[in-house]
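Let's do one together. I've listed all components of the complex below, 333 residues spread over two lines.
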Amino acid sequence: MLADRSWASRTLFAWGTLLVLVGFFHGSYYAGTQLFANEASDVALLTQMTTGARDSAAQAVEDYAMLQGQKAVNIAAHSHIIEFGMLAILMAFFQPYVFLSERWRRIWVTTLLAGSVLLPVFVLLELRPGLLAGGIADIGGLLVIVALTGMLAGVVRYTGTLDAAAGGAR
Amino acid sequence: MTRSGRWLVIGGLLLAVWGMTYGLYYAVFVEHQTLDTIGGSLTGAFVHAAEQASQKSQASMQAYANANYIYVRQVDAHGHWIGLGLLLVVLGIAFGRVGFSEPARMGLAGGLIAGAMLFPLGVLMETVIQGSIPKAVAVLGSALVIASLAGIAFGFSRDRGTA
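Okay, and this is what the predicted structure of the assembly comes out as:
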């Protein structure tokens, strides 16, 4: 498994590690610059709900929902990009068993990595352009699913005796 | 497997075992009590506010803030230890493919292991020590992880099968 030095394998190892790095960096940045402020806002808004007048309390509830949204997208974005990075590294191990032509292996690797970047980036942007960003993030997720299915098809082909008898992938 | 790779696998497994042990301890002895405190104090804050007892409400809100602050860090720390441990194991298996000399790979492995231990430790220290020391430990740990991962990604990209 580790002997494979193909473009697909090298690219998945390098980009997978890079995705983990980016996710870790974003998580650290969020923890260092926003986590404490968000926690303070959390308590301040809850206090405003309990002590403020009706309008003020209503505004606090609205702001609280937005704050929870901010937390959720930051946590989701950094954890998704790290998970996709780990997935890319794991898929790098399996590349010798993806019994497809080099061209198709490259297509699925590029698709996987494109989806792995698109989803977390647009999850992070969901609070601004809203639905459009959410839709693009969903497309990113779909790309990852399609790429994994493509690679899975290659792995299934690898075990087929007919393909083995034919002498190689076309 | 290279020596550096073996160090990463061993370090990663130790880190994962440590993180899981800590998580188990936390789940059995601390978590449920903490969640009760979080829920109870938040409920108390609203109930006291409805009863116009603003001082009691403030006290309950402060109890909620303190419990939540600790809970988030305890959960994050053990989760990050385990996650980083698994990353170390996976990278360790393929570490021979990092296209650098073995001493350079040992340096990257050492940096990654140290960072993976220190970063969650700094986060956890924030719950018991006030001031900048815990933050400095967390920042140092994350800087080590980021720098090591950058080196490893570059090393993977220049691998041509000679390592």
